[in-house]
UniProtKB/TrEMBL annotation:
Annotated protein name in UniProt: Transposase
Domain of life: Bacteria
Record-annotated Insertion element IS402-like domain positions: 6-78
One Pfam family from the record: DDE_Tnp_1
Organism: Burkholderia mayonis
Coiled coil start-end: none
Length: 251
């Protein structure tokens, strides 16, 4: 018997953003929920596509549909379906390094653009913004050697919030000024080599563990904790799924 991950409540929140509804162009899908369960099973277990249980259907059919949805940006839309960007008190940002399995190498350079080489070998880095309730807001994937500050503005620019909370890796004059320009607080500890130490709210900074716990949660998805996918788009799709469902599904 296959253990299902989606509850009725979670399904109700994402059903409307998936293709195949009545009125959509093309064929109406009767099995969207079971298909999403199949993709979650692959992401959660980290198994090869060929090992997908037969109860989900032919593995190649499921994989091709997963790829079509990835090209259409469906998996990224799911993140926005579970996020509520209308009232964001605080935004917390951070990044994590993901080691790549040997199976992830070998694709053409453009198709593996987020696979880089750092001290840990081949790695990908996930940059993430969550709100104070632990809901995902933005996700970016880069090569492992990319610095945190490189993606900082892209993570927070579209968002309106009262404070941006981050660690010392984001301590940059330009970034702090860009936050203040939106009338938000920059809750970022100054680096030790700064001559003038900038003041920040230590009380708010203690909440930074929200984004750290979020990373711990999504790494329950084995296909996110280790990169097995050759194609950057496929890995990002699984990371998007983990962000959308990680805090919500039954582990």
């Amino acid at each position: 018997m296959i253990r299902k991950l989606l509850s009725d409540e979670v399904w109700a929140r994402i059903e409307s953003v998936l293709p195949g509804k009545e009125g959509d162009p093309g064929r109406t899908a009767a099995d969207n929920r079971w298909f999403v369960e199949a993709v979650l099973w692959i992401g959660r277990t980290g198994c090869p596509w060929r090992d997908l249980p037969k109860a989900f259907g032919r593995w190649h059919t499921v994989y091709m549909r997963f790829s079509r949805w990835r090209r259409k940006g469906v998996w990224e839309r799911v993140i926005h379906a579970v996020a509520d960007e209308t009232e964001i008190k605080h935004v917390l940002i951070d990044s994590t390094i993901v080691r790549a399995h040997q199976h992830s190498s070998g694709a053409r350079k453009k198709r593996s653009a987020t696979l880089g080489r750092s001290r840990g070998g081949l790695t990908t880095q996930l940059h993430l913004a969550v709100d104070d309730a632990g809901r995902p807001l933005r996700l970016i994937a880069t090569e492992g050697q990319v610095t945190d500050i490189s993606c900082a503005n892209e993570l927070v620019e579209p968002l309106r919030t009262g404070a941006v909370i981050a660690d010392k890796g984001y301590d940059s004059n330009a970034f702090v000024e860009s936050i203040r320009a939106t009338r938000a607080k920059a809750v970022i500890p100054p680096r030790s080599n700064r001559k003038t130490k900038r003041r920040y709210s230590r009380v708010l900074y203690r909440t930074r563990n929200i984004v750290e716990r979020f990373f711990n949660r999504i790494k329950h998805f084995h296909r996110v904790a280790t990169r097995y996918d050759k194609l950057s788009g496929n890995y990002f799709a699984f990371a998007s799924l983990a962000c959308a469902f990680g805090p919500l599904v039954r582990m």
